[in-house]
Amino acid sequence: MRRSVSLVVLVLTVWIAGSVAWAEESVTSAIAGEELFDNNCSACHSLDKGDSGIAPSLYGVIGRHVASLPNYGYSAAIKAYDMVWTEDNLKRYLLNPQAQFRCHNLTMGHTQECLGIRMPFRGFADPKEADAVIAYLKVVAGKN
């Protein structure tokens, strides 16, 4: 009996320590994400609900359908894209935004590839930076 109680205490200690370490890592990532967001995104994107200006608001972006905010002029390529923003596809987008959405214009019978977004941001070079921005968005933009 004494041995099983010790085992339970050990398992609980490891579980709690792991949870604390995970929480600390999440907080650290969100803090780094705030700086990355401020330096790369905030000039155009708001985190306030319904506040779309130059670019769509990112309030509640994770779990939201692409191109679903009313009164924002999305490109035709993005409007035609039937997808929900998940952490995985948001990460792919943040690493290479221009590659995520492509459109094809038919001009005089020829298909011509064109960019489907107007955002000038080229993407984060480091996947950890994209992860940090996503962690920040989850905390401050309505999906914590």
Task: Map the helices and strands.
Elements lengths: L1 H39 L35 H4 L7 H9 L1 H4 L1 E6 L2 E6 L11 H14 L4
Antiparallel strand pairs: 1-2
Helix pairs in contact: 1-5, 3-5
Q: How confident overall, as mean pLDDT?
A: 76
Q: Which parts are unreliable, with pLDDT below 50 for 5 consecutive residues or more? A: 1-15, 104-113
How many DSSP H or I helices? 5
**Number of self-contained structural domains:** 1
Describe the global form.
globular
- Element order, helices and strands? HHHHEEH
Share in helix: 40-55%
CATH-derived topology:
Cytochrome Bc1 Complex, Chain D, domain 2
Strand elements, count: 2
Please name the fourth-level CATH homologous superfamily: Cytochrome c-like domain
Q: For this structure, what is the CATH class?
A: Mainly Alpha
- Fraction of residues in β-strands: 5-15%
Could you tell me how far the N terminus lies from the C terminus, measured between alpha carbons in angstroms? 41 Å
Structure classification: mainly alpha
What does the main sheet amount to?
2 strands, antiparallel
* CATH architecture assignment: Orthogonal Bundle
Rg is 20 Å
Widest beta sheet: strand line-up:
1-2
